[in-house]
Amino acid sequence: MNNFNFYSPTYFVFGKDTENKAGKYVKRFGGSKVLIHYGGGSVVRSGLLDRVKESLKSEGIDFVELGGVMPNPRSGLVYEGIELCRKEAVDFVLAVGGGSSIDSAKAIAVGVKYDGDFWDFYEGKPIREALPVGTILTIAAAGSEGSGDSVITKEEGMLKRGTGGEAMRPVFSILNPELTQTLPAYQTACGATDIMAHVFERYFTNTKEVEITDRLCEAVLLTMIKETPRVIADPNNYEARANIMWAGMVAHNNLVGVGRDQDWSSHNIEHELSALYDVAHGAGLAVIFPAWMTYVMKQDINRFAQIAVRVWGCNMNFANPEETAKEGIERLKQFLTSIGMPISFKDLGAKEEDIPLMVEKLGLGDNGTMGSFVPLTSKDVDQIYRLAL
Ligand code: NZQ
Ligand code: ZN
What we know:
This protein is an alpha/beta fold. The chain has 2 domains: 11-179, 3-Layer(aba) Sandwich (Rossmann fold); 185-387, Dehydroquinate synthase-like, alpha domain (Up-down Bundle). Helices cover 47% and strands 11% of the residues. The chain contains 15 helices and 8 strands. The protein has helices at residues 22-28, 42-45, 48-58, 75-87, 99-112, 185-203, 211-233, 238-250, 265-277, 281-296, 301-310, 321-338, 345-348, 355-361, 378-387; strands at 11-14, 33-38, 62-66, 92-97, 133-137, 149-154, 159-164, 172-175. It has a 6-stranded parallel sheet with strand order 1-8-5-4-2-3, with helices on both faces. 5,6-dihydroxy-NADP is lined by residues 39-43, 71-73, 97-101, 103, 138-139, 141-144, 147, 149-151, 179-180, 182-183, 187, 191, 194, 252, 267, 281-282.
């Protein structure tokens, strides 16, 4: 196991009706003038936004609002949010929605404290400070409610880039599984795929002797395999929604990833798909992950056979572990298909002729690599996209 530091100080408030405590927690974490930041309208239609406003009012907290965050959130609204916060002397950003609203809120929170262009942070500038961010989560997926990460798309060139910094980790996150019951089945499945992908990015490692995090990863995956079909069959199944919501947080606040090298190539490869076609991140991952696994499997057949046996319930073929490994990938594809996810470019509506452009936009050039399980060159990424056709 590698040395590590783990500090994950978000205060989680989990369960029914917890959104009504938003005002109390904003106050506890020092907010007196709030920007409420949300998406395309689901929180308006569900009445959640009104309940949050009531909660702030009941604590005497002043607020301004900025809605309109799109899935794969754009830089344009971030600039607007930064300006609004400065004009209104906002000292706390409250995201109400999914990963997109939360990531946009984090970008605004960082941008307000910085004289230059907030995009500098998405090009590698280290993050030092931000306004405090709180979240009220409405979809279990990105894990942004417990992470210090944010992913934004710059309209110019449709560049989708991520950044991370402790200052962006939410100070509190309110997780009420009931709020996810209005999700369409497709969005639920996209979220479930993303949660599983966050585990895969950590599970496939060259670091040895990481049994504890292997087992935690497997627990999250087994939970998702059990609970996802239940919520797709019955969107109002509170208990299944609750398990998935917590799994989404656990999968990405790095509890299951500490002490090991992590890969993250598939996320970068996917980001080019969602940037180009504006598809849901989870749907893009459903297409990329099986292809990536097939391409890199030989790096550690035993690890792939291990997940096949422990998570997918395959029988170990001791004479030929590669067969077991392949069966595990096949089971993953079957699972993704069963929950309504695309597993190919064709399913997703992506085009073969765009592969060179996506490879180029990844910026690896002739000699660069990305990922740690198997460092991938531009040529490798091209092959992975083609395996996903
Ligand atoms: O915009 P509204 O109207 O709210 O609708 C959203 C949106 O259309 C809808 N939705 C959310 N909650 C709902 C609901 N509809 C009905 N009822 C509800 N309760 O669902 C759609 C998707 O929302 P979005 O916020 O985009 O989903 P998600 O949480 O999957 O976030 C995706 C973004 O997060 C990034 C992705 O790249 C993508 O841009 N990621 C962020 C990460 C992080 N910050 O740590 C890590 C992830 O790997 C990921 O890259
Ligand atoms: Zn993700």
